[in-house]
């Protein structure tokens, strides 16, 4: 498909319409943006993922472009506790550069930290990682994808040798005889994806949903398993136990394509369905029906999302489902497999190009000497000068402003004051910084705490690429120039690098080979130029983009990585013949159930879990400002079972308080017979008194650093 639109070198500014993709979630629905008499108009566009559909967030996305809350000038705070005031770009950038120099001179390079986002384009994510390692030379960079994708990423890596959310195109879901969705609510989180599920149903396929709540997705299922939050791992092990007993394990596949099955077989032998029923509340009959539907299907897909993954045992939970998929011989078989539904717009690409603490571009490890040499070569620096690995997002935020922690933080594309676990604590850490810089186009709750706020361009004002949940690289296209006073993130990074390099000789890139760079060299502002460098930096790495070009994306419906050669094929489907592990085989990992980090007790007798509603996005900083979305979902709420409400003497719509050891949230009760009576749910899109993350636990997964957003112990009180 040729879109027939302008591309990067003609950024599209002033052109009547461009073919682009939605600014929000990882489905990256295709849309056409155009100028109309009423302003900027969004029209859905046919694409294999959204098939002409857009959700309400996509439809209304253009409203923020000319929103009265849009930031169009830098803001500066002259003294702690003072007000933010408008400032010139020069003043703001000078202040940041001076602040960084002071902090690094006093406390070392690692005293400055960077926090990125999975919504940034590939080009920006790459530039941000390079900026941290080359301009700041700090090891401290991480990003909000840690709270999103990290558990599935770690489990995928250790079993398959690669982390690509879906190792097959989304349309394959329509061909699965059985589809198991674990902790995923795409009817609200990716509505157009449901078109593929409708296909699947039409072809006679079965849909099974595992969720403690009867969600809009679960309502469409043939079977809904309603486990206690945090027991999915045990459920998966029980399913494999049954599959073994019934002889549904694909022994040929296991023998030819995997290693390590014996340990897993021994482990799941102890997961008797009746015991798992007692633990999880899922009836043995439902466990058996699910195992049968998966084990006897011609094709089957198992998908996990945040409900299964956002736990202190998230990695092991995903491994349990990967084990099940491998034992049934699913990965690599047509119409079958395991996948994870990636969340943020560039949740996939954002985790490949170096904004993760332990990572260099191309999904390379920063502690791998060969990777360091390759990337340092592309960057024109000495490999020995590249910092080592930093720490995962929560650990980073928690250390801010402490004796050994960073004293300055630069945030690009996240709003942790609302979205971080144990958010009140994180907020207090941010307040203790010597310098907080936030680049955003709106005054998010985090930006409101900053010493310097930089107004940046929005999605319709810059070109770039995004990698969707299928690993398909797509083109984002600019419809217009940013408004006066606004700069792109790339331009901000270039200007800061310029000041840091020019200002003090010790900050100049030093080179044992190659020439001394001119100021800001290495930080181009043209996204196409950045992408060309990203291609070289990723070449030979697991996420190889060397063969992806903007023109190639334009000439097709995106390009799937890995794609090492411009003239070679891309990779819509992985694992058909082998896995990218040293011996080509997938690896089983035996995993055992363990309780949630926080147990219910007399004072906190209920389980609390969190998630999303259709009309709000993430920290809500964007969608709470869109009129139609605010009308659709104006306020937070606490979902609880009528029996529980009865016991508490709470009526529908009455204000309640949800209290944990960390803090509390206040919102209206929403009674729903669809939720377990021992569990309450709240969405996390609202700040202030209704902030769900005032309540959540900051326990993290030991492997991935994923916080336990999906379970902690609370009590509910009438207000
Ligand atoms: N409308 C909307 N769409 C979005 C987003 C948004 O903010 N709003 N965000 C995007 C992003 S970044 C992401 S990561 C995705 C997330 O997409 P999803 O993972 O679908 O979203 P969540 O609502 O976080 O969680 C899914 C379900 O997990 C259930 N759950 C809670 N605890 C457990 C548990 O212990 N086990 C199981 N099995 N289920 C549990 C919840 O009840 C919830 O229905 O959505 C993307 N799309
Ligand atoms: N309790 C609970 N908490 C959760 C979750 C949960 O399920 N439960 N889910 C977690 C998950 S999966 C995620 S992904 C996080 C997300 O939470 P956040 O990281 O807070 O994500 P957003 O709200 O998308 O924040 C993005 C911010 O960056 C700005 N922005 C958008 N695009 C750009 C850009 O291109 N450049 C710059 N400079 N700024 C930009 C937006 O205006 C917004 O203020 O929340 C996590 N927190
Ligand atoms: S499903 Fe996701 S990508 Fe599609 S329109 Fe909605 S928010 Fe945008
Ligand atoms: Mo996410």
UniProtKB/TrEMBL annotation:
Record's protein name: Assimilatory nitrate reductase (NADH) alpha subunit apoprotein
A Gene Ontology BP annotation from the UniProt entry: respiratory electron transport chain
Keyword Iron-sulfur: yes
Single GO molecular function: NADH dehydrogenase activity
Enzyme kind, highest EC tier: oxidoreductase
GO terms for cellular component: membrane
Alphabetical list of SMART domains matching this protein: Molybdop_Fe4S4 (SM00926)
Domain of life from the UniProt record: Bacteria
Keyword Oxidoreductase: yes
EC number: 1.7.1.1
Organism: Micromonospora mirobrigensis
Occurrences of domain 4Fe-4S Mo/W bis-MGD-type (ranges): 15-67
Keywords, ordered alphabetically: 4Fe-4S, Iron, Iron-sulfur, Metal-binding, Oxidoreductase
């Amino acid at each position: 498909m040729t879109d027939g639109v302008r591309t990067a070198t003609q950024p599209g500014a002033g052109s009547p319409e461009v073919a682009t993709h939605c600014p929000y979630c990882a489905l990256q629905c295709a849309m056409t943006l155009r100028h109309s008499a009423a302003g900027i108009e969004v029209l859905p566009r046919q694409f294999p993922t959204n098939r002409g559909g857009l959700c309400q967030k996509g439809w209304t996305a253009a409203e923020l472009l000319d929103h009265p809350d849009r930031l169009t000038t830098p803001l500066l705070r002259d003294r702690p506790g003072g007000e933010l005031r408008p400032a010139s770009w020069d003043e703001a950038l000078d202040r940041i550069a001076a602040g960084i120099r002071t902090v690094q001179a006093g406390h070392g390079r690692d005293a400055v930290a960077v926090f990125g986002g999975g919504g940034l384009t590939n080009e920006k994510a790459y530039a941000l990682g390079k900026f941290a390692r080359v301009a700041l030379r700090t090891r401290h960079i991480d990003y909000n994808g840690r709270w999103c994708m990290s558990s599935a990423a770690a489990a995928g890596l250790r079993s398959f040798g690669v982390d690509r959310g879906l190792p097959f195109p989304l349309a394959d879901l329509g061909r699965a005889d059985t589809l198991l969705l674990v902790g995923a609510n795409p009817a609200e989180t990716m509505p157009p994806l449901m078109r593929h599920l409708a296909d699947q149903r039409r072809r006679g396929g079965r849909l099974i949903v595992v969720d403690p709540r009867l969600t809009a997705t679960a309502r469409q299922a043939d079977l809904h398993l309603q486990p206690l939050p945090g027991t999915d791992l045990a459920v998966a092990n029980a399913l494999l136990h049954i599959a073994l007993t019934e002889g549904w394990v694909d022994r040929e596949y296991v023998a030819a394509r995997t290693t390590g099955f014996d340990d897993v077989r021994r482990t799941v032998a102890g997961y008797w369905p009746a015991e798992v029923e007692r633990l999880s509340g899922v009836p043995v009959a439902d466990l058996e029906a699910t195992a049968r539907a998966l084990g006897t299907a011609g094709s089957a897909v198992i998908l996990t999302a945040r409900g299964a993954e956002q736990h202190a045992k998230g990695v092991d939970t995903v491994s349990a489902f990967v084990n099940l998929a491998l034992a049934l011989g699913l990965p690599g078989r047509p119409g079958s497999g395991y996948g994870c539904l990636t969340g943020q717009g560039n949740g996939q690409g954002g985790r490949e190009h170096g904004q993760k603490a332990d990572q260099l571009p191309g999904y390379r490890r920063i502690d791998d000497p060969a990777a360091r040499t390759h990337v340092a070569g592309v960057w024109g620096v000495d490999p020995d000068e590249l910092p080592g690995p930093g720490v995962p997002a929560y650990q980073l935020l928690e250390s801010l402003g402490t004796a050994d922690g960073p004293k300055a933080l630069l945030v690009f594309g996240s709003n942790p004051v609302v979205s971080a676990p144990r958010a009140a604590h994180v907020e207090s850490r941010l307040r203790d910084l010597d310098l907080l810089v936030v680049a955003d186009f709106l005054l998010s709750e985090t930006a409101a705490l900053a010493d310097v706020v930089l107004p940046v361009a929005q999605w319709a004002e810059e070109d770039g690429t995004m990698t969707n949940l299928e690993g398909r690289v797509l083109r984002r296209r600019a419809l217009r120039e940013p408004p006066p006073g606004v700069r792109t993130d790339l331009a901000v990074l270039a200007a800061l690098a310029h000041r840091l390099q020019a200002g003090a000789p010790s900050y100049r890139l030093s080179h044992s080979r190659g020439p001394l760079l001119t100021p800001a060299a290495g930080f181009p502002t043209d996204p196409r130029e950045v992408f060309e460098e990203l291609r070289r930096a990723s070449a030979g790495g697991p996420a190889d983009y060397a063969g992806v070009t903007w023109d190639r994306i334009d000439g097709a419906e995106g390009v799937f990585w890995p794609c090492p050669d411009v003239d070679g094929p891309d990779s819509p489907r992985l694992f058909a013949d082998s896995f990218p592990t040293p011996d080509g085989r997938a690896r089983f990992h035996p995993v055992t159930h363990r309780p949630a980090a926080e147990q219910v007790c007399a004072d906190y007798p209920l389980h609390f879990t969190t998630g999303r509603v259709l009309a709000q996005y993430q920290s809500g900083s964007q969608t709470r400002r869109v009129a139609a979305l605010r009308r659709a979902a104006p306020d937070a709420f606490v979902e609880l079972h009528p029996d529980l409400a009865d016991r508490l003497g709470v009526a529908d719509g009455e204000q309640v308080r949800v209290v944990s050891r960390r803090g509390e949230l206040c919102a209206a009760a929403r009674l729903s017979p669809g939720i377990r009576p021992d569990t309450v749910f709240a969405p996390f899109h609202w700040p202030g008194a209704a902030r769900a993350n005032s309540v959540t636990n900051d326990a993290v997964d030991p492997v991935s650093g994923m916080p336990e957003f999906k379970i902690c112990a609370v009590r509910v009180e009438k207000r």
